[in-house]
Structures are given as structure tokens and as C-alpha cells.
Amino acid sequence: MTDFDDFYAAHFADLTVQVYAYFGDRQEAQDVVQEAFCRALARWRQVSGYDDPAAWVRRVAWNLATSRWRRIRTVRAFHGRQRGEPIVEGPSPDRVALVEALASLPATQRRAMVLRYLADLPVAEIADRERVAEGTVRSWLHRGRATLAARLAPASTEVPHA
Amino acid sequence: MPELTEEQTRAAFASLRAEELTRVRPPGTAAALRTVRRRRRTLVAAVAAGVGIALAGGITVTSLVEADRSAPRPAAPSPSTSPSALSAAQLDDLKSAALAALGPVDNRERRSAGMGPVIALTFNPVRGTDPTINGTASSENKTGSYVFEILCVGKGSLRARFWAGEPPGPPSMTQPTPPPGSPDLRVPCVDRPTPASASVRAPWPRRVMVWIEADQAAVGRAAYAALVRAP
After folding, report:
1. Inter-chain CB proximity B20 and A20 less than 8 Å
2. Taking CB atoms and an 8 Å cutoff, what residues of chain A touch B31?
């Protein structure tokens, strides 16, 4: 068992869940996280010396996912023009309610929510990563929680009548 | 506006995490290692510093890492345990010798010597597990012309094809093939090699394609160095 094996075992699944929660595609999330780990392995001597190698892999994975998402969006837009009708994504059975609700948030709020509640990063670190003030991150989190409350309310608060 | 409490939010995300963790299937570190090794074996495109000054715009260099899956393969190479196969250290020495024989590859040095800037560079031992190398390079090179140089140190020989390909598109499962009449270099692996070269025109956004195949005598006994440069 090498350092890298331990590192991979400790972080792969968590990072995949974080990327999935942000982008909403489990397979894509797994692919980009694996690619990010490949890149870490290729320069492991350097990456393993960082204070937080997992943060490096997360950043690479998110950047890769962002690029792929933009490409997919472009392809969908192209196909939409070709067909002359908008593409409407059908319901996906493997999407949980929270991921669907997250998808309705603006990117900044969604990112803040995932980093805060899945990656468990402190507000200060999210602010540093996003290059905004801590108050801005708190505002994103507040708005994110409010939107999630509205989206998740029917499922979480309705009590069936006897 | 009502919002989820901190506790409710944490509970919701913890539940999501717990559910999703059971669905994640890590490909594993062995798969990552295979990917990294394959990339190292195939064309490693190095964009040397300063190329942008000599060329009109940005540079794109991509390795066709995946393409070699469907590439035409030569007969199975002789095993690397053959008595005449060289050790890893000896192959590394050959690799260094091949790179040195190629001349300066630092673009500052090349510029001061009046040589065209390097766009892509690769140098490796010829290994038994992957005797074909595929690669592609492109740049917004004003002239649209590219020069390919290759040499080989050791035993055996290489065959190198160099041609103008189509602009990058969606990944294809089919191996790009050189058109008839495109440069086809036979490169002997010797102790004191001189570069064999070929030129093609591939105006942006077309790209140049490289395909290198080693014969069995070179596997485990030779190293090559190759570059793509502007004229």
C-alpha cells in the first residue's frame, strides 16, 4: 500500500459525491475525479507535498467537470438548433430530491452549499477559494438554504392524514 | 424567508452523502497507474516556452493517447527478457543520447541559433509493450508548415509517418491513417544518428499527425527522439 493508494482510498468517494452534488451526473463525476487522481499520480511527488492534496484534486476535478459541462451544454444547444426544438431533460430516476433542488440554485450558491455541507470546509476557506468576502459566502449559504427549504418542503413537511 | 436550519441542512447532506457513497465504484489506483503509464509511453508533447513569440497565436498540442488502441500493431514483440534486451538504466542512457543528438530543444536557444521553435517533443525508449507511438500537434503557425525530425539510437529501426490531419473533432474510435504519398521515413537505430526529417503543410485549424512504429529488433534495444517544429 503506497501513500497514493491510501490517499485515493480516503478521498475518491467523497470527492465524487461532492462533484456529483454540484453537477448532477454521477458517471461524469466519477470520470472527472478519476482523471483528477490520474493527474495527481503523475505528479505525486509534488502534490503529496501540499498542505491539502485533496483540495488540489478537488479543484482539478471541478475544473474538469466545469469544462465538460460547458461542452455538453454547447452540444445540447447545437442539437437543439438542429432539431428546431428545445431539449428538455427528462426525469432521471437516480437523482435524489436534494440533488434536484441543488440544481436549481445559482452556481455560486450551489458551490458554497456543496463545499460547506459535503466537503465540510469552513466559511473562511470557501471565501478564500471563491475570492469573495466571508459575508458573501454566508449570504450564498442563507439563500441556498432558503431555496432548498422551499424545494424540499412538500416532501419533508407534508404529513399524511389518517 | 424560511430556510433550512443548519442542523436540517447538515442532516440532508449527510443523508445524500451516505446514499451516494454506496453507489460510487472507484476504478482504483491500478487503473490510474495504467493511465499514467500509457500517457508517459505515448507522445508527450512539450510546448517549449517562447513558442508563442515566434507563432501567431496560441498553441495547442494534444497527445492521441487513446488512438493507439485501434492502431495497426506489428507482430508481437520479442519479450523484454531476451538476453540482448537492455536494462532500464541502459535504455535511459539511450534516451538521453537520442535527445542530445536531436540538438537544442530549448526555444530560447533555438531562436538565438536561428532555428525554428519546437512545438512538440518526445523521447523514449522503445519498449516491448507499446511499440507504436501516435501523436498530433497543431499551432496557429502563420506559415501553416511543420517540420518533423526523428532519430533513433541503438539497434533495429523505426518507421515514421507524418501527415496533415483534419482539425480536432469528437474522439474517434478509428485510427487516423496517412494519405497516400505522405512522408514515410525509415529511421535506422544507430550509435551516431542524424535526424531524418519531413515537412508538411497543415494550415490552422488542421493539425499534423505522427505515427511511429518500431521493428522487433529495436524493442528493448533502442530509444528515439522526435520533434515537431515550425520551419
Report:
1. yes
2. 34
